[in-house]
Design brief:
Helix 2 links the parallel strand 2 and strand 3. The protein is an alpha/beta fold. It has eight helices and seven strands. It holds the Pfam family adh_short. This is SDR family NAD(P)-dependent oxidoreductase.
């Protein structure tokens, strides 16, 4: 039995990815900071016939993230697929606000490092040695498409960090050539669950499965933004009502 660890698992994309990989026989380890949210996702996947376990951890707490991944391996076996896609909530955005390109400061960039880049490095650092030893494995790291493929000046401090993460994963893809381990970056230019067909979690999860199954592309760009995406700003889930 294979295992996927979904870091940043939530009720939209994370849940859909879990359901898609479960349909292929994967056990599912769900990792995020909110146990209640994780359990709700796990309950939605309970009918899939595979093992689904929750491992609460905040990705900005790197020892806790390592411990959660280690616990997942102990309960479910080696992690064959790592999917990393945490996203901020309104409280995170109050603590570390988004900053547009002309107002970027050193502090505004440093505030974004833990969630996006350092959490991703920690997760990959944990699973990659075992994958290399086994000669197999998949690493899928997600960010907004402003990390490279599109321009999003209203979130420039985040894109400085995710641009670095994207560059690292593209280089990792090249470095892992012929190792049996595959890494790819997913650039999401969509309001998940709000836009057209390509923005729907189930459609996106199918694309993640194809990346894993075909193991050819270094990057997938999911582009389904409205023409007025700069005026629209953030997706609804990031804005407190």
């Amino acid at each position: 039995m294979s295992t996927i660890a979904i870091v940043g698992a939530g009720p939209q994309l994370g849940q859909a990815i879990g359901r898609r990989f479960a349909a292929e026989g994967f056990d599912v380890a769900l990792i995020a900071r909110n146990r209640t949210t994780l359990q709700a996702v796990a309950d939605e996947l309970a009918h899939t016939g595979v093992r689904v376990e929750v491992f609460p951890a905040d990705v900005t707490d790197r020892p806790a993230l390592h411990a959660a991944l280690a616990a997942a391996e102990e309960r479910l076996g080696p992690i064959d697929v790592l999917e990393y896609s945490p996203a901020p909530g309104p409280a995170d955005l109050r603590k570390a606000p988004l900053v547009e390109a002309t107002k970027v400061t050193v502090d505004s960039v440093l505030a974004q490092l833990d969630l996006y880049l350092l959490g991703g490095v920690a997760a990959v650092e944990h699973v990659l040695p075992g994958m290399l030893e086994r000669g197999s494995g998949t690493i899928l790291v997600s960010s907004g498409a402003g990390s490279g493929p599109i321009i999003a000046p209203h979130v420039a401090n985040v894109q400085i960090v995710t641009g670095g993460m994207r560059n690292w994963i593209l280089n990792l893809h090249a470095a892992l050539s012929d190792s049996g381990v595959y890494a790819a970056h997913v650039a999401i230019a969509a309001f998940i669950g709000q836009g057209g067909p390509d923005s729907q979690p189930e459609t996106m999860a199918d694309a993640y499965w194809r990346l894993h199954a075909e193991r050819t592309e270094a990057e997938l760009v999911i582009h389904d933004l409205p023409d007025d995406y700069l005026e629209k700003g953030l997706a609804d889930k990031f804005v407190e009502s």
